[in-house]
Amino acid sequence: MRKFIITLVLFFLTVTNTAFAGIKAEISNVISNSNINRGSISVSVKNATTGKVVYELNPKMPVSPASVQKIVTTTPAFITLGNDYKFSTSLYRNKNNEYIIKLGADPYLKSRELEKVVKCIPKEQTAINIDSSIIDDNEWGEGWQWDDDLNPLMPKFSAYNIDKNLMEITISPGMMGYPAEITQDIMYPITFINKTVTDKVTKYSLKRQNHISPDVIIVEGKIQNDKSAIVNIPINNPKKYFTMRLSDAIINHSISCSGIYKDVRVGKDDKLITLLSHDIAAAKKDVYKNSSNFVAETVFKLAGHKYSNQTGSFENGLEMFHEFCRTHDIDTSTIKIVDASGVSKNNLMTADFVTDFLFKVQGFLEPELATAGEGTLSKRMLYLKGFIHAKTGTLNNISAIAGYISTQKNQRYVFSIMINNAEVSSADKKMLEEYILRTIYIKG
């Protein structure tokens, strides 16, 4: 009997190793048949049950992970904050009968919602203060590119988050050959140098020369004669924008406040008057499926605040991250993290680290990631809907994808593919990712 059991075990090991060998050969062929240099490709595929390596190519080569990094940074952050966490904006009254708006860096707060807080303040109130201590005032990440400051995917973030720290402008056509008209949806002190003309096509650009003035934006190009263009522009001074929206609400409710808001801290004896909040569930969707840099960075600092019981910062968020990895026996010695979102090219990660992380946190993470047809996978690999749950990443010259995949043979794998190559197009890099994942799905 004992001999039979040993023989059976050896048989299954042989079958498993043969299957793994088949996947290795197929993936290797796919990569060889691409026009992408193998030295720029980093791949790690592991069995999701055992953690055993199934395929790897340059798995320990440090590369830029782009937004795949959000998996690594925000998972500990969301776990630290907890499923019941709410982003909140609160109103307090102190013993001097002064009102204090305590900011929660809520990434979902809107100007019209601020009205609900302000309306609880008596009309005769003259002193309104702000507590912005929940996170620090460092509004951008290390290594973010100065020429991306008009990218709506990379707005600044702070305790003063409101309206996603974006403002909307409309570029409307005029008569053919004549300038278009630029209008703002809300008051904010910004000047547009309008170099647009009305034409048969729309092709325009925006430029801000911060060394001259951050409040001047040059708009040039063409606007189609029968269609307006709606553009979201990152706010260059979120605190100024927030206080302007607060002043609007105060004026709308005929409150006597002067519009000068001192920065104070809410005390333990101050009385809570009202609270406005948003659930954390929306943030998980926006980070994992829609890859929001704005939400990812905010959540990371808020988790650092809760972990350290101090003003949230990238530094105490990083302490929280390393503590999480130590607790889950995840080695961080091969990586470098300088922001939460993966925007900075100063971030370095290995495919082996990513799959190790995915393996250790799969119970929490897998259900949160996008499948084919959702989020950043809305138009990719639709035949794998329900079989793949993944996070994508894209920067100049960089494409990445990582997550979980189930195969036709009912096997489950964790995978990480990161391609850092300037010589081929983004479409070619993403095509290779798809071919690799299709091979795993069919042959795994």
Characterization of the model:
- The protein starts with a helix and ends with a helix.
- The protein is built from 10 helices and 15 strands.
- By secondary structure, the chain is of the alpha+beta class.
- The strands form 4 sheets. Strands 2-1-15-14-13 form a 5-stranded antiparallel beta sheet, with helices on both faces.
- Helix 1 packs antiparallel against helix 10 and helix 2 crosses helix 6.
- It is globular, with a radius of gyration of 26 Å.
- The relative contact order is 0.20.
- Helices cover 31% and strands 23% of the residues.
- It folds into 3 domains: 220 residues, 3-Layer(aba) Sandwich (Beta-lactamase); 96 residues, D-Ala-D-Ala carboxypeptidase C, peptidase S13 (D-tyrosyl-trna(Tyr) Deacylase, Chain: A), CATH 3.50.80; 89 residues, no CATH class.
Q: Compute the number of helices.
A: 10
Number of strands: 15
Q: In CATH, what is the class of the largest domain?
A: Alpha Beta
**DSSP helix fraction:** 25-40%
In whole angstroms, how far apart are the ends? 32 Å
Shape: globular
Order of helices and strands: HEEHEEHEEEEEEEHEHHHHHEEEH
Residue share in β-strands:
15-25%
Rg measurement, Å: 26 Å
Strand order of the largest sheet: 2-1-15-14-13
The structural domain count equals 3
CATH architecture label name of the largest domain: 3-Layer(aba) Sandwich
Q: What is the mean predicted local confidence, pLDDT?
A: 93
CATH superfamily of the largest domain: DD-peptidase/beta-lactamase superfamily
Low-confidence stretches: 3-18
- What structural class is derived from the secondary structure elements? alpha+beta
